[in-house]
Amino acid sequence: MPHISLKGRQRPRAVAWGRHKQSGFSLVVAAALAALMAIVTLAVYQRVQVNQLAADRLSQDLLLDKADAAVRAFVAIRGRLPCPAQVFGGTEQCDGTLSKGWFPAEVAAALAPTGTAERLRGLRYFADQRLSVISDNFPKEPHDPQIVNGHDFCRELALLSPLGGDPDGGLPGLVRSRQPVAYSFSSAGPSGFTGRNSSATGSFESEDREQNAIYRERVREVTVRALAREANCASIIGSLNMLTVAASWHAAMPGIRSKLAFDYKTYIIWPMANALVTWTFMAIDEAAVYAGDIAFLITGMHELESECEAECTGGYLAACIAAGVHAAQAIIVGTQGLAVAVDAAALMTRSITAAIELSRARDFYAGYDLVPIWDGQDGVLKSVDALGPLVWREGP
User: Fold this and answer.
1) CA gap 177, 16 in Å, rounded
2) How many CA atoms lie within 13 A of 119 on its CB side?
């Protein structure tokens, strides 16, 4: 068999084929790694965003908590809500024309540390004008007018609370709507304030609006009912109207006052007048009786003494002794007369004292009978009586 040479034939290169195959595998791996890196980067970015959002929300909530505490402290001190400021860093504007603005700088400075006060000034702030500008319906403490009793503030809260039976009256078993907002704050996001939070009028965005990558602001609302509970208005109003007895007192007090005045006249004034008259007549009668007796005794003794002296002059010893006895009796009678005069003077002194006390009693009676009771506060008490129980009923 002839030998066949294979010298001239070219065999395929295994090496070349292996290199092309290795190059294709590297591109797939690179694409997979790039996709994985993109996914990891996106996940890290999302995680950072979520963490940043949570951190921002926590910081906003802490700031809003401090603002809320400052407002509650201000209410306890001044008996009203702080008025908003017209501009950033401004002071309260309490002329009744502004309900939405910025948190007032002087309130922040007075009730918060310096660093916190600077941040509080950057909050947008809303306050119901009926709670920031309060009218004085109840009298102040007469001995210290600076004392804030909270009566007028709680009265305004009661008047702002929905009445029972209204659509938002908060009665058990009924569909409840939101309570009126007493005050609210808005904390800025990284891009500042947007939408209703930046407007000069109207309300802020809902505090229930969810934060996202675009909306990063935070809103805090405090309702009328929540503020009333915090301010302990139930006890304050209850101490004023006394609920179960105030109405009956209002109707019965004039009659009770008249009866007490009549009793005072019957059991105090008239007995004193009777005692005065009795003591006076007793003094006069006793003085007259003793004066008559003394005059009779003195006249009789004078006659006997004259007879005894005449006989004693004639040398009759017994008559002289009798004359001396009569003289001694005259001295005793005179002493008794002096005692009677002193007794009569004492009775007259007692009568004069009784007359003075009677005059004082009559003056007291006249003043007591003319004291006005409940005048000037009837309407206020009635309105608060009607609305007081709603203050502590649980709200939505």
Assistant:
1) 80
2) 17
Q: How is residue 99 written in tokens?
A: 């309900």
Residue 90, CB-side half-sphere exposure with 13 Å CA sphere? 15
Cβ-based neighbour number of residue 361 at 10 Å: 17
Residues 6+ apart with CB under 8 A from 68: 185, 220, 222
16-50 pLDDT tens trace: 444 445 555 577 777 777 787 888 777 776 666 66
Q: Quick one: tokens of 127?
A: 């306050």
Residue 306's pLDDT band (cuts 50, 70, 90): low
Q: Which two tokens stand for residue 105?
A: 């700088």
**What burial class does residue 282 get, using C-beta atoms within 10 Å of its C-beta: 0-12 exposed, 13-18 middle, 19+ buried?**
middle
Question: What predicted TM-score, i.e. pTM, was given to this entire model?
Answer: 0.51
The helix (H) or strand (E) run that includes residue 219 is strand 218-223
d(CA 354, CA 272): 7
Rounded CA gap, 231 and 226, in Å? 9
Instruction: Please count the other Cβ atoms lying within 10 Å of the Cβ belonging to residue 24.
Output: 8
